[in-house]
Structures are given as C-alpha cells and as structure tokens.
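Journal club prep — side note

Before the paper discussion, L.F. wants everyone to see what a predicted structure for a comparable chain looks like in token form. Sequence:
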Amino acid sequence: MATVGTEQGARRRRGTGARVLVAALLAAGLAAGCTVSQAPGDDGRGSPRQSSATPRETTPSEPESGPETSPVLAVKIDNAFPARPQTGLDAADVVYAEQVEGGLSRLLAVYATRLPESVGPVRSAREADLELLRQFDRPVLAFSGAQGKLLPLIDRAPLEAVTPESEPDAFVRRPGRFAPHNLYLRPDRLMKEPPGAASLTTGFHQGPAPAGGRTDDEVTVRFPAARFTFTWSGARDGWLVSMDGTPALTPEGERLAPPTVVVQHVGVRRSRFGDFLGNNTPYTETVGSGKATVLRGGQAYEARWSRPTAADGTSFTTGDGEEVNVAPGQVWVVYAKTP
C-alpha cells in the first residue's frame, strides 16, 4: 500500500476544433450576458457579474482545421460528507480531485462521451479551475457561485459559464437534502447530445501499459483534511474509490471503480482569494512538469508529467521517454502537493 501527500494539477493538449457559437449566444451577445451571483448557501462569496452562458445546442460550426468538436461540459462537484453519494460521477470521462480551503477536497468532472441525467451537488468555482480548463476548446463550466473578486476572471476566461442565475431551468434543488448540498445540474437542458471524444483534449492516450510497473493493490492520497484511497479490484477491472475512509458509491449503491488513476505531484501555493470565513484558497499549478504515478491493471507506473502551456494537455512518460497510456474508460486525476 502506497501513501502520498496531495493537492492539484493536470495538463493536456488543447484541441484545434472550432468554437461553437450557439444561435442564442449570438442573439444575446457575449457582452450583454446575464446577471450571475452566488447561489444561496454556497461557500463562495458571490456577487453580481455578467455571464455569456445561454442554453446551447452541441452542433459544432465548421472547423478551421482538424475534426469537428463541441465544448466539453465541466461541473464543479461538492465532496463534503453531506454531499455524498454524488450523482453523475460514474458517467464522467475525467474526474479531477483538488484541494480547497481548510485542506478539504472538491471534484471537477468532465463529460464528453456521455451526459448523465443529473450531476451534483454543484458547488463554487476556484481560480485554479480556469488554468486547468484551458486545455479544452471553450468548455462549458457549470458551477454555483465564486469568490467575488474571482468573478471578473471567470468572465474573461475562454469558457462558457453556467450558473443557477444564468440558466435557472438547468438546475434543480433536490428535496431531502439541505443547502448547499442539494443543487443539481440537468445536462440535457444545456446540451442535446454529448460533445464526443474528439473534444476531450486532455493529452491522455489510451493504449497498452508500459513495461516496468510494480504490483500495488492500494494507494492512499492525503490532503490536510481529506484523503482518497484506491484499491484494485480484478473483478471490476478498476480501482475502488474510497473518500475519507468511506466507499464512494453511486446513488444506486455501486462502488466507483475507474480503470485508471493518476496521482500527479504539483506545486500548490496560496492564491489571491479566500472563502467567506477568511481561509485562503489553495492554487494548484497544473502547468509545468513533475512526478506522477499512473495506476492501471493493479500496477503502478512511475512517470513524469509535462504540460508546457495552459493550452496544452498533459503527457506522461517513463524515465526512458516511453509514453504511459491510460486504460479505456474513466480516469481520475488526484493532485498531490510536491514535497
């Protein structure tokens, strides 16, 4: 069993597909937008802002070069104990686990090949999300509120922001849960169909495992006030996820079991922002290079990660320069703070 310390980071090659401009966006105008503020009960200090988000279709425009692509859907998901079990995590192509205030964790789920009926609970965005999402071509980011001084940066970022204020019909409050752990997104009210695998420009490549792995059936990644444990299951052909010592389940009671888990060691520093309690928000540096461990098939592969610019995806190579592929299926990336 391996244990590592943690925080955030990931990196990937940006797709060259054309940006999608929806008829509703053209009618509204990016500059006009909608008023957006923090959703009631969220932990971000929301304030009114202008959003360019409107309901959209996923039919792509004619690309300048390369395959046609549509924007991926990225959703900020609560990972506090009252938010579990989360909905829609099992349908994500990639799940990023990052550290937030107080040493706790939050998830960013990215959807390209499947759109679940519901995703949530949805929570607030962080500054590091903007750098992480630059690897995609104008992604749709669904979140609920943000620290007030961060909102102008979200406005200027190359993404489409979707909040309960900008798209009220796309969000629902679920009975039986208390705020802020009861807000859920309905992806079908934003997109008619999944954008497709070509939009998933993470830099990850599926293929055979490299040589030189070591047998490791359980790995734990620790944040200051949270932890993730991944236990290999041959029966599931995946890594059973536990969070803070509790099995991570779907609402139907099935264990989450991604075929590939990446523990990526990154720099984590103080950001310019904080929460309403005065806690500073950690900033995960996902551009650069460093060490990583790729888990697949009950084996651990030591690797180097590289993401030269924010527009790139993240590549993983062995010491000999061989590419470390991921297995087909979902990938979890957990950001561990470099010692």
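L.F.'s comment for the group: The domain at 2-7+205-337 is CATH 3.50.90.10 (YerB-like fold). Keep this in mind when we get to the figures.
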